[in-house]
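Supplementary Note 2. Why include the ligand at all?

Several targets in our set were suspected to adopt different conformations when bound, so apo predictions alone were not considered sufficient. For every target with a known small-molecule partner we therefore ran a joint prediction. The input for glutamic acid is given below.
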Amino acid sequence: MSTHHASYTTYRGRLAPSPTGNLHLGHARTFWTAQQRARSRGGTLIFRNEDLDSARCKPEFVSAMFDDLKWFDFDWQEGPDCGGQFTPYNQSERMNSYRAALDQLRATGLIYPCTCSRKDIAAAAHAPHAEDDDEPIYAGTCRPTQSSKLKVEGCKLDDRAEQPATFNLKPSTRFSWRFKVPDGETISFTDNNLGPQSFVAGKDFGDFVIWRHDDVPAYQLACVADDAAMQISEVVRGADLLVSTARQILLYRAIGLRVPEFFHCTLMTDDAGVRLAKRHDALSLRKLRELGESPATLRSKW
Ligand code: GLU
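The joint prediction is reproduced in token form.
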């Protein structure tokens, strides 16, 4: 499948950090690209706080995130702090919209409940997955057969708790929802930075979680629902998310949403060539600020 992108008349970009730790220079470089691309087109930059994972997201990281980005000279036109036409901009306040997306996906018959634990999945994983991508290829243990798929299509879709019965699960069973990928299909798109990209469903990535077993929407679903609702015309993100972009294109297609354009930024590495992560405290914006570094000087080294 090659992807036809949205033809939006105005540019809308976004910064979508997760408040799970201090932002580092690598985040700042990707975000700066997002900001520059929005500015150069006279567009709008949206700030979305991706705070769905309540176990990992901490309020002190939220305030640090705003502080650090303001210090670095970021400036957005819509966000939790300044409002905008697509409020709210905190993902934790957008559950209704994610539930609506879940319902739409259920109606397609393309998702199924999965009771596998993390351990089951690791033990049954088909093949090593792309180095940068953190979701192992799912072996299909809970993937429905053709006949149970027909049952799903025929079932009433009003309450999430009803669905597992269709799959013969006890009501108390914890499960996640997985999206069934079209095995063997090539998902292609033209990245505005890296050029033509293609990933094969079932080989480069497998059936992926769209709703977690702890009843939290997974990143893939929340991101697609929000980028579509907020009318994002171009998604600027790190190249570690290229495979996720392919997954997300499948979700846009399944729900019938307009696919944005994509611009993936190469990732920043430390002096030893290791990709920056939130644990690299030495390169956190916090630390650099404490050390008296100036954002303009830091940017001039990019
Ligand atoms: N919150 C995600 C992250 O920080 C956003 C990724 C994206 O740009 O879609 O990794």
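The two ends are 35 Å apart (CA to CA). Residues 149-162 have pLDDT under 50 and may be disordered. Comparable summaries for the other entries are listed in the accompanying table.
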